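User: Reviewer 2 asked us to show a designed sequence for the structure in our supplementary figure. I'm pasting the structure tokens here. Could you produce the per-position amino acids so we can include them in the response letter?
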């Protein structure tokens, strides 16, 4: 059986391929002319009548073939999605920082949520302004002065 990391690795490509192949199938079905064929032979009305050549056009797209391909595409998509979802139901892990377990037996869906939130928090922190290092700054937290130095050039923030 495949591991969760392997399923997650291929899921995105299978989803995009499925969307693309289904769109192609729908596009092929929009042209009724490719789904129909014809075979005509002409006989003159009488023995001295005009002889016309036979006429034929083969079916270019078979609905049965499109249905078969669509079934294959959707089966792969459903299998991968179901495998991932069922595995997510039982997969759990501990969140450990510096040897301390912060969260125990956390479900995968929550770990993915935490991962996204941490990435968003990191992006937020990177956008915070940085104070000029050439100045001495005093930090006031809830009215208390922290990092206080008696310097003529120090500024509060």
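Assistant: Here is a per-position design you can include in the supplement:
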């Amino acid at each position: 059986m495949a591991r969760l990391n392997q399923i997650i690795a291929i899921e995105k490509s299978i989803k995009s391929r499925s969307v693309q192949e289904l769109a192609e199938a729908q596009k092929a079905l929009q042209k009724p002319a490719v789904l129909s064929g014809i075979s005509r032979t002409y006989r003159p009305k009488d023995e001295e009548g005009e002889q016309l050549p036979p006429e034929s056009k083969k079916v270019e797209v078979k609905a049965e073939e499109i249905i078969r391909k669509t079934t294959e595409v959707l089966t792969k998509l459903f299998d991968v999605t179901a495998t991932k979802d069922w595995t997510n139901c039982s997969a759990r892990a501990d969140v450990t920082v510096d040897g301390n377990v912060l969260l125990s037996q956390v479900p995968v869906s929550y770990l993915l949520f935490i991962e996204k939130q941490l990435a968003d928090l990191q992006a937020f922190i990177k956008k915070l302004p940085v104070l000029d290092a050439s100045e001495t700054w005093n930090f006031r937290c809830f009215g208390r002065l922290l990092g206080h130095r008696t310097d003529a050039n120090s500024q509060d923030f």
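For the response letter, you might also mention the following. The helical segments are 4-29, 32-35, 63-90, 108-126. The chain is about 50% helix and 20% strand.
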